[in-house]
Write a structure and sequence with these properties.
This protein is α/β, with parallel strands linked by helices. Helix content is 31%, strand content 21%. The chain has helices at residues 35-42, 66-81, 97-114, 135-147, 149-152, 223-231, 248-259, 296-312, 318-322; strands spanning 5-12, 18-19, 28-29, 51-59, 85-91, 118-122, 156-161, 164-167, 171-173, 182-184, 211-215, 235-240, 263-268, 288-290. The chain binds succinic acid (SIN).
């Protein structure tokens, strides 16, 4: 019988970052140490059994691309389908971890649950060589969670930061530098995990629908919407104020865009809470939909995936698909 192992996928981030001067930890470059080096820092006790590493990328996550998300997604899928892999940990920059979280949740969350495996994202707020860096503790927590998922009954796409496990979909970064900058919005692990029957298709290619985020603010002109529509944008996420309210000038432009076939998601720039529609959803007449608890960045990824899925199912009803993420 073959022995099982944990798969550790490295993508970079501050957890793999190095400060030039360890006394000035905020002055660092992300994505420097190889994932093998991160494992060496925590593996002294071998309490996680065998761990094998794959370097998927070594970047600052602000530079995450659709191409790289596709590459990561297929690496995760291969790990889930491999009987020898008992769980998967992904080291990732914290700046866009929530976007990768919603991507993996939508495309591989059901598969992970099917195989009763955990895929755990983790990262760090301080670089690897800083005094009191949080990376090693976070990595140990993630390896522990991935290894013990069966016992803990925690399957799917998870994340752990600062000792707090959650569904990766529910995570968002809400502080620029605090060690507990990543917080859980709306739902905890024991909440409803997957509303959809099946995963959305894992994109095979890196050319995703063009979706932009536009912010509503005092003095909005709406000109940005006109420019985007003229250039052929396929979707717009509006980061509204408060509960997703949109400046009237901007709203008029967005209604026009939606009438012209652009998919519009109404979310909130506030950073916590949810945006609900007062009108029944999906509102196909306006081509608008409310983001619920997905923030603008997560809504953007979810809208891209919903548009891709709608295209492959040959339907215009992207709203029903978005609503399941
Ligand atoms: C990054 O997202 O790659 C840099 C910031 C971080 O990991 O905290």
């Amino acid at each position: 019988m073959s022995t099982q192992y944990l798969l550790l996928l490295g993508t970079g981030g501050t957890i793999a970052g190095l400060a030039m001067d360890t006394q000035k930890p905020l002055n660092y470059v992300a994505g420097q140490l190889p994932v093998e080096g991160l494992l060496e820092q925590v593996q002294e006790s071998l309490e996680f059994g065998e761990v094998r590493t794959v370097q998927v990328a070594n970047i600052d996550s602000r530079n995450m691309t659709e191409e790289l998300l596709v590459k990561l997604g297929w690496a995760v899928k291969a790990g889930l389908e491999n009987d020898e892999v008992s769980g998967i940990v992904i080291t990732h920059g914290t700046d866009t971890m929530e976007e990768t979280g919603v991507f993996l949740h939508a495309t591989l969350g059901k598969l992970a649950s099917h195989y009763k495996k955990a895929v755990v994202l983790t990262g760090a707020m301080l670089p690897a060589n800083a005094d009191h860096s949080d990376g090693q503790t976070n990595l140990k927590s993630a390896l522990y969670l991935a290894k013990e998922a069966r016992g803990l009954q925690q399957f799917g796409i998870l994340a752990v930061m600062a000792g707090k496990p959650c569904l990766a979909r529910d995570l968002s970064k809400q502080h620029t530098h605090a060690l507990d900058a990543l917080v859980v919005n709306a739902r905890e692990l024991d909440g409803p995990i997957h509303k959809r029957q099946a995963d959305l298709q894992l994109p095979a290619q890196a050319s995703w629908p063009w979706v932009e985020i536009v912010t509503s603010h005092a003095g909005a002109s709406g000109k940005l919407v006109d420019m985007l529509v003229a250039q052929g944008v396929q979707g717009i996420v509006v980061a509204g104020t408060g509960q997703g309210s949109v400046n009237k000038v901007l709203a008029d432009q967005l209604i026009q865009a939606a009438l012209n076939g652009v998919a519009v998601i109404r979310s909130s720039r506030v950073g916590a809470g949810a945006v609900f529609s007062e009108i029944p959803e999906p509102d196909t007449a306006w081509n608008w939909l409310s983001a619920r608890d997905l923030n603008p960045a997560k809504s953007r990824i979810a809208l891209q995936l919903a548009l891709l899925e709608a295209n492959s199912r040959k339907t215009d009803d992207w709203q029903s698909i978005f609503a399941t993420i």
